[in-house]
Amino acid sequence: MTVHVGAGAIDIRGVDLSFPVRGGGTLPVLDRVDLAVPGGGIVALIGPNGCGKSTLLRVVAGLLRPDSGTVSLDGAPIDGPDPRVGLVFQEPRLLPWRSAADNITYPLELAGWSAERRRHRLAELTDLVALDERVVANRPAELSGGTRQRVALARALALQPEVLLLDEPFSALDALSRERFDLELLRLWERAATTIVLVTHSIAEAILVADRVVVLSARPGRVVADLPVALPRPRAIADLDAAVLTDTAREVRRHLGESTDSADSADSADGLESTT
Amino acid sequence: MTRSAVLSVVGAFVVFILFWQVVVIVSGFPPFILPAPGVVAMRLVRAWTDGTIQPHLATTLVEVALGFAVGAGLALIVGYALARSALVERLLSPYLVAAQATPILALAPLIALWFGPGLVGKVLICSLIVFFPMAVATMVGIRSVDARLLELGRSLRATRRQILTTLEIPAALPSILGGMRVGVTLAVVGAIVGEWAGAERGLGVLINLARGSLFDIPLMFATLLTIALVGIVLYLAVVLIERRLVGAR
């Protein structure tokens, strides 16, 4: 396993964000969020539905500007979409009129790479995310859900970002594929040397993948717990049965419970669904 | 097209011709009211071989091509503005709807009066009639672009121009091409209407001549068939372009 230090360190400080509401007023979504992710680290964000996990991810991606507070990457503030950050959405978001290959190289095209360089990088990327070279000639509609998300992952990695932000990337997949993708993500992380922030609904997924599990409260989202995962790397599915897992999961659940009971019990049931 | 599709198209055409022939026989209309299909077919062949049709056809085609290009071109720009700016929509839509609600037949004499019997008036009428459906199709198409794809583009630092060329246009293309199908056939209508209001040449003029001074009703039918053929060919051309551009999605 490679040790990643330095590049890709995220520092979120005192981030507040609220959305305007139809008919006036504002809805506070993030409440003084502080979070530091060291370069090359993997942090999972977990919390009830609507707690602002995805919003926080968009702030880090530079797609949303916080009302106050700062986000910086390796000491430089993020004030807009940044080439050092790759983003994978909950749904693959592929351009349906392009082949998978042209979807993967889309960021390179936008950045003005030549066709020759794009082709070269495409080969590296398909190898990195284990995509069959023959499959990438197909359009997204002809691919399975898992393959589409692989394509989206390759696209996010195209410009060699230092940070990979994943917004419930495997939530549409069945449980078995999901575990496989989680492990592949870890292998990819070892090769691509990126910092990873993973938003998830699944406690098991969070623990399997992350160094730390950060629990957000119900809206407005606030960090209520930051729990280290004491599992050695490289990790395997077998680790899921370890005692550490049980302890950490219990701890995460306790904080999730605290953060949601006070707000909205329906939300908490939702947040704890799919955790087994 | 598959074999059975070709057969059904040919079959429908044969049924139409037979029906026409039966009406002629049963009704006993004289040829200057309803000529038989055979008479019209022979007149059509003669009009083509003796060079009656060609100059008129050429004039009409130029009017259609220019009118469609101008009308569709403006409609793409205005349709985009309508989709992306609520202000533009509020300001322009009453005029657009009013222009569409006014029959082109009523406007044609006025346009002929202002621009004379030349090309400009016809192009203007064609553009007017093509404009509305194309502008609406463009507006609907651009509005239908998935906001999540636009967010993806933004996250990849796409410029406005890149968003337009790599996201908005490809996504709106099916709708725009649907508008074009309607637009090309209307452009033919516009050219004929414009020619009726005053012109020296064109298929519309030929219809007037055949009905009036020549009193050659089979020629009138032959001209009508030619106009219909022009419409069909243009429509099929758009369908082919559509297959090429969006068929494989």
How would you sum up this structure, described in words?
The complex is a heterodimer of chains A (276) and B (249). Chain A is α/β, with parallel strands linked by helices. Chain A folds into two domains: 10-84 and 163-272, Rossmann fold; 94-160, no CATH class. Chain A is built from nine helices and ten strands. In chain A, the strands form two sheets. Chain A has a six-stranded mixed beta sheet with strand order 6-7-8-3-9-10, sandwiched between helices. In chain A, α7 packs across α8. With 249 residues, chain B is mainly α. Chain B folds into two domains: 1-30; 35-246, MetI-like (MetI-like fold, Orthogonal Bundle), CATH 1.10.3720.10. Chain B is built from ten helices and no strands. Chain B has helices at residues 3-27, 37-49, 53-84, 86-101, 104-115, 119-143, 147-155, 160-196, 203-211, 217-246. In chain B, α3 crosses α9, α5 (104-115) crosses α8 (160-196) and α9 packs antiparallel against α10 (217-246). The longest helix of chain B has 37 residues, at 160-196. The radius of gyration of chain B is 22 Å and the shape is globular. The model of chain B has no long low-confidence stretch (mean pLDDT 92). The A-B interface holds A 61-63, 80-81, 83, 87, 89, 91, 93, 95-97, 106-107, 109-111, 139, 141 and B 148-149, 151-159, 162, 166-167, 170-171, 173, 246, 248-249.
